[in-house]
Design a protein that fits this description.
Helix content is 72%, strand content 0%.
C-alpha cells in the first residue's frame, strides 16, 4: 500500500508543479497519455520541448512502477523510484526555464 501512496504523491507533486506555473492557460489534470497530450495541445507545447519530454518520462516511469508494484519490492524498483524523485526535482528546478 505504501508504494501506491508514494506513486500517487509523486503524481500529485508533478501536477502541482506544472499547474503553479502562471504562463500556462490550461491545467494538467493527470499523467495519462491523453491528459498530457491535451495539456500540450491546449498550451501549444511541442512534443520536442524539454518540459514535454520530462513529463512523459516521469509518467512512463510511474506507469512502470505501478505494474511492478504487485511484485516483491526489488532493488530495481527502489532505484526507479529514486530516479522518479530526481526527475521531479529536476522538473521543479527547471520549469521556469522551459516555459
Amino acid at each position: 500500500m505504501n508504494e501506491f501512496l508514494n506513486r500517487i504523491t509523486a503524481q500529485r507533486e508533478v501536477i502541482n508543479i506544472i499547474n503553479q506555473e502562471k504562463k500556462l492557460s490550461f491545467p494538467l489534470v493527470g499523467l495519462s497519455l491523453k491528459s498530457i497530450e491535451r495539456w500540450k495541445k491546449e498550451n501549444s507545447i511541442s512534443d520536442d520541448s524539454e518540459i514535454s519530454k520530462i513529463i512523459n518520462l516521469i509518467a512512463s516511469k510511474l506507469f512502470f512502477l505501478a505494474n511492478k508494484s504487485q511484485e516483491q519490492i526489488t532493488g530495481e524498483y527502489k532505484l526507479l523510484s529514486k530516479n522518479v524523485s530526481e526527475l521531479i526535482n529536476h522538473l521543479k528546478n527547471n520549469i521556469t526555464n522551459w516555459l
